[in-house]
Amino acid sequence: MDTDEYRGIERGSRTYLRAVLAMLAAGLATFNSLYCTQALLPTMTADLGITPAESALTVSVATGMLALCIVPASILSEKFGRGRVLITSLALAAVLGLIIPFAPGIATLIALRGLQGAMLAGAPAVAMTWLSEELHPRDLGHAMGIYIAGNTVGGLMGRLIPAGLLEVTHWQFALFGASAATLVFTVVMVALLPQQKLFQPKKITLRYELAAMAGHWRNPRLALLFLTAFLAMGTFVSLYNYLGFRMIDQFGLSEVLVGAVFLMYLSGTWSSARAGALRQRLGNGPTVIFLAITMIVSMLVMAVDNLWVTVVALFAFTAAFFALHSSASGWIGLIATRDRAEASSMYLFCYYVGSSVVGWFSGIIFTHASWWVFVGYLTGSLLVLLVMTVMLARLARVEHSAPATTATAPATT
Q1: CATH superfamily of 14-401
Q2: Which one-letter DSSP state was computed for residue 194?
Q3: pLDDT number for residue 411
């Protein structure tokens, strides 16, 4: 196809609307499914007679398996196409989601959640790449912003739907309700997703893919962004995994009110869309430093033994995290001048490994220490994150003073 005549789907066309709505539905399905047990953790802990760390494994194992499978899914999409991988991934995960609530015990439930996380991996692995390939570059930023909004709203629904249903039914049926919503979003995505026109299959070899990923780790800025994703997401998930226990035990909230706390995700929907304007005003480096500092201050404020202070701090923390994620993921595309799919998949791999590993380990700290110690531990992780953002900013200044490159890529906002 002559790309001088056709550069992608343009905004204003019916096909563009279908593409954007399909990716919005994909984001809703993916993150609704991935975090559908998080709001249920206190109830599952009490009902099954397990520890908070054990119940949190229903989240950590899903994100961990998703992390392990993101890179293979990205590689397979180079041969079989982004759309095919996306549809297969979400369809299998949605069907499995209807079975998971009726697992006979916690061990089976955790194992099935791990399998579901593996199946979900194809969606985040290829969604942004599909948009980058199929949409006109001029309109890509708008579509990316809607996709990321779908991610945040999907994560929010994954908490609110089961938390709301928990008021009128058992946690297993609440989980089934969230899984049914995932199936609906998946059907919408399959029905709307346009066929690919600009995808070019690539001959894939394990040697080349491994060399490409190793090459990205040798780039100091990319390596720091990968580690930033690991720590930022790990800290974020750790806070949301265990804050619900504090809301119930310390502040006496009901499960449905604890679920309503996840409305803070809406601050992330807003901030991820505004992150691009902030980067244009301050630059990439100063932006990520500012957001890391905001996360640290907000985390420290959450040590205060007051419900409303905690809620306000959580709002600021959530907004800063999603803006940081949006900025960092967009920066990946600007730095990686080749093998961008592999760079994006490595970023997401680190992102979800952080969610799984740090989220699980934080449960041990939470179980055996006071809230003050727990907050101090998470603040320590964020201080390391701040150091890395400062290093990123310094490297960016050095790069800016060097001769300009021809790399171009959209920001994911």
Answers
A1: MFS general substrate transporter like domains (1.20.1250.20)
A2: P
A3: 33
